[in-house]
Amino acid sequence: MATPSLISETETWKDLKAHLEGIKKTHLRELMGDTERCQSMMVEFDNIFLDYSRQQASPDTINKLYKLADEAHLKQKIDRMYNGDHINSTENRSVLHVALRAPRNSAICSDGKNVVPDVWNVLDKIKDFSERVRSGSWVGATGKELKDVIAVGIGGSFLGPLFVHTALQTDPEASKNARGRELRFLANVDPIDAARNISGLNPETTLVVVVSKTFTTAETMLNARTLREWISSALGVSAVAKHMVAVSTNLPLVEKFGIDPNNAFAFWDWVGGRYSVCSAVGVLPLSLQYGFAVVEKFLQGAHSIDQHFSSAPFEKNIPVLLGLLSVWNVSFLGYPARAILPYSQALEKLAPHIQQVSMESNGKGVSIDGLPLPFESGEI
């Protein structure tokens, strides 16, 4: 018998569908009255606590979801990602954002090459450059220190770094390091947003970071040209090389724009835009604001979760549990939306960041093989 081409055609999926009717008739009050159930639905890792006891699910539901994960070969798929297999079948690429925060002595390969040394070459370059700017050894065209940074990007080049920036503003060490400095993000092509971003800033003390892998992204390059004109009209065309740097892989276009290619910071085609906050896209502007040592702690925290995701058993694996509950809520219970409600003001930009990460990743109408899906696959 041929293997079903869609997960919804398996007996495991059908078993969950049959189980659904009983759960729908069970009130959450009844589920919450089961102390043993509630205790089994609490997981902790590295001071991150997940309590999913208020989900409309029983222990039997969770066990059936584990079986569904096994049916989908989830563990093998996780391993394939970490092994650098081309799981991005559309573009025939590895998906290795985990390599962006791997320790220096790690080995993570794409197409037979360990990419971790390349990652650390860029991180070392960011550390050196950001320390020179912050110490005042790298100055602007008129000899003044560069205290203000405008990061120009869009989508994943903007939402992830903005989230981390907002969170770090409340961290004692980070806020101390940022004293007297300012970091702003420009993503909207509306001239009002550009005017608002440069309002109160002096071109003599401003550094612009242009984030575009190809250096052809229309919205980003329009804003970059606007800021180039702002700098060159005040300080002369030659000042651009001292006041603008790039996160890009297209060095010819970077140089043609007026930016010194030596001041271009690379990232790779195995980094999806929405996962790029741990690349130079986020690390460069955040290091300029807070210092590399602070941002390195953020990378270490991300690596800690990467290890947890790749090695923890499913019943203790927070990312896997959240993913399975998402499948249960959307594809079975039929709930179309998820609310992300940070009670900590430091996390106020988490929702728009996760909105893009989740919806762009999971909001598909077809399977990875291009077959139309007969069920909902992602939340709003």
Structural features, described:
By secondary structure, the chain is α/β, with parallel strands linked by helices. The protein has two domains: 7-72 and 312-362, 3-Layer(aba) Sandwich (Rossmann fold); 100-299, Rossmann fold (3-Layer(aba) Sandwich). The chain contains 16 helices and nine strands. A hairpin with a 2-residue loop joins strand 3 (109-110) and strand 4. The protein is elongated. The relative contact order is 0.14. The model has no long low-confidence stretch (mean pLDDT 94). It is an enzyme of class 5 (isomerase). It is found in: Cytoplasm. Pfam families: PGI (PF00342). Its EC number is 5.3.1.9.
What distinguishing features does this structure have?
alpha/beta; 5-stranded parallel sheet; Rossmann fold; 9 strands; 48% helix; 2 domains; isomerase; gluconeogenesis; cytoplasm; 380 residues; Phosphoglucose_isomerase_CS; two-stranded antiparallel ribbon; monosaccharide binding
